[in-house]
């Protein structure tokens, strides 16, 4: 995202979701009090991406000890001494998220060592939180259960039984007791001795038996901080920063990359931030498309965790468009249509992968020096065909469709509407949607169907299509992204030199319950919550 000051971010955002109750307000007061005691820095969410591409000379060897060191979340004095021992283990995966374990461990006896952040007082509601960086042994285990299916038929004299094999990951907490490691009430001088013991002897955790067989090393998308050289910061948001740098791949090749890392690692938020970053990486690992920013992987062996992305030399789309204004450069109609088509193809691919992006905007698009637009920032994305936001969050209403603002419902059609706003940004060189209005006033315009109109410089064929098929109040009547791509491909082949765009007025809709009716059709399908 283009760096924005907190004041500018606040002017674009508004709380979206159910109204605050007295209970909510009391909970927020308690949270604020707790945050102030822990020295919490207030901030609002903002995604991050590249802004202006640095020159090769900007990439310097910074001292990683000041950037990537274990976060001092624990009061245990030996934590920093333990890091060297952990890093020497081939099966150490750092702060890998629990949700990724089933993608790493697949056979009975597979195991790894990881770190996690736990509240030592999680079982004491009245106690002050005390967050510790704990060491966990995760092992893939299988249990066999026999289910009695009842009496057989007259021809069957025996009861029938069905065996069900349940695969799961067992997590064993490894505690530091003085200079020794403890697990299953046994103590060992080193973690390697502990692993060797449970390779030969069964262990038990709450009646679950486990035996270590195969240590699992880092996968192709897991890197170490030592593989990364951090350079100049090129983007910043409220929760994250983006640096340019280099990455040493598994085959030894060194490539340019963008490094997205978290900042302000407060105790009570670090675990959740790591999960958010790992969820974004989990989604992006499956996306391979020319109009989607590629991911190399993550580096989570130390703090802060790194999200390692393809480095886009052209920078952000919003920066590119604003530079055109600054340098008084005319961007051709053909180029702008190509930008729209590139973004549309990227979104179409995302929808085919059954993902809702939820944050389509020029700030979340990058452009290469060959003028190829790529979609980035999947921090808000959800896997599934629909999603309902159950809590209250601060979002930018200018890019949201009516159903998102009124009923906190997102579908692929919500992304289609946001794509219309992106088209508006491209043709106005990133003029702010509903410029001059407060976020609340912009929300009122959208929820009453007073949508944006594209400028006269936009070809009439595109303006008409956006007004009739994209800026549509009823989400069930909006065009699918595949149809949008086909239409843009036809428009791109037209003779655009003589085409002009007439003024197209938005039509105020009748009271509609489009989102509600769609949900009624899908009442048997639960909204996905990731």
Write the layout of secondary structure elements.
Elements: H1 6-12, E1 14-16, H2 22-37, H3 79-87, H4 101-104, E2 110-119, E3 131-148, E4 161-177, E5 180-183, E6 186-188, H5 191-200, E7 203-205, E8 208-210, E9 214-215, E10 222-223, E11 228-236, E12 240-248, E13 254-262, H6 267-284, E14 295-299, E15 306-310, H7 317-326, H8 333-352, E16 355-356, E17 365-367, E18 373-375, E19 382-383, E20 386-388, E21 393-395, H9 402-407, E22 409-411, H10 412-427, H11 439-447, H12 460-470, H13 481-492, H14 514-521
Helix pairs in contact: 8-10, 8-13
What is the C-alpha radius of gyration, as a whole number of Å? 26 Å
Terminus-to-terminus distance: 23 Å
Largest sheet properties = 6 strands, mixed
**Number of distinct helices:** 14
Name the helicity range: 25-40%
Into how many domains do the coordinates divide? 3
Secondary structure tally: strands: 22
Instruction: Identify the quaternary structure here.
Output: single chain
Detail the poorly predicted runs.
1-10, 34-77, 501-514, 516-530
Mean pLDDT: 79
What structural class should be given to the helix and strand makeup? alpha+beta
CATH architecture of the largest domain: Orthogonal Bundle
Determine the strand fraction and express it as a percent band: 15-25%
How would you sum up the global shape?
A: elongated
Query: What is the CATH topology classification name of the largest domain?
Result: Transferase(Phosphotransferase), domain 1
């Amino acid at each position: 995202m283009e760096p924005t000051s907190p004041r500018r971010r606040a002017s674009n955002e508004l709380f979206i979701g159910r109204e605050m109750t007295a209970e909510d307000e009391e909970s927020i007061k308690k949270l604020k009090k707790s945050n102030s005691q822990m020295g919490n820095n207030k901030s609002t969410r903002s995604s991050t991406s590249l802004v202006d591409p640095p020159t090769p000379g900007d990439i310097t060897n910074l001292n990683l000890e000041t950037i990537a060191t274990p976060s001092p979340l624990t009061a245990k004095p030996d934590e920093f001494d333990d890091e060297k021992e952990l890093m020497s283990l081939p099966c150490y995966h750092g702060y890998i998220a629990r949700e990724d374990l089933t993608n790493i461990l697949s056979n009975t006896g597979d195991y790894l060592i990881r770190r996690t952040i736990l509240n030592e007082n999680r079982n004491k509601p009245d106690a002050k939180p005390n967050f510790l960086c704990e060491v966990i042994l995760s092992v893939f285990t299988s249990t066999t259960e026999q289910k009695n299916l009842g009496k057989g038929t007259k021809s069957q004299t025996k009861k029938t039984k069905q065996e069900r094999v349940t695969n799961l990951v067992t997590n064993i907490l490894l505690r530091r007791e003085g200079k020794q490691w403890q697990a299953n009430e046994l103590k060992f001088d080193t973690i390697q001795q502990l692993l060797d013991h449970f390779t030969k002897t069964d262990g038990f955790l709450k009646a679950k038996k486990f035996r270590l067989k195969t240590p699992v090393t880092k996968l192709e998308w897991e890197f170490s901080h030592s593989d990364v050289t951090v350079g100049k910061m090129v983007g910043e948001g409220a929760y994250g920063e983006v640096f340019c740098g280099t990455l040493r791949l598994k085959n030894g090749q060194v490539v340019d990359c963008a490094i997205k890392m978290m900042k302000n690692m407060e105790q009570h938020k670090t675990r959740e931030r790591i999960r958010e970053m790992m969820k974004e990486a989990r989604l992006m690992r499956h996306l391979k498309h020319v109009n989607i920013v590629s991911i190399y992987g993550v580096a989570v062996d130390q703090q802060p965790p790194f999200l390692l992305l393809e480095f886009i030399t052209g920078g952000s789309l919003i920066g590119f468009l604003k530079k055109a204004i600054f340098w008084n450069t005319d961007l051709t109609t053909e180029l702008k249509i190509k930008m729209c088509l590139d973004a549309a193809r990227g979104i179409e691919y995302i929808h085919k992968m059954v993902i809702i992006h939820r944050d389509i905007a020029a700030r979340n698009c990058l452009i290469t020096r060959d003028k190829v637009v790529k979609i980035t920032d999947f921090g808000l994305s959800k896997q599934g065909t629909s999603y309902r936001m159950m809590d209250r969050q601060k979002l930018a209403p200018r890019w949201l469709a009516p159903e998102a603002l009124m009923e906190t419902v997102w579908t692929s059609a919500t992304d289609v509407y946001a794509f219309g706003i992106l088209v508006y940004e491209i043709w106005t060189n990133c003029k702010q949607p509903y410029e001059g209005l407060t976020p609340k006033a912009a929300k009122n315009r959208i929820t009453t169907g007073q949508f944006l109109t594209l400028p006269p410089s936009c070809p009439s064929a595109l303006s008409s299509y956006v007004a009739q098929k994209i800026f549509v109040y009823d989400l069930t009547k909006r065009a699918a992204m595949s149809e949008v791509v086909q239409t843009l491909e036809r428009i791109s082949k037209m003779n655009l030199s003589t085409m002009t765009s007439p003024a197209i007025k938005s039509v105020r809709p009748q009271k509609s319950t489009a989102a509600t009716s769609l949900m009624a059709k899908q009442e048997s399908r639960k909204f996905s919550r990731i």
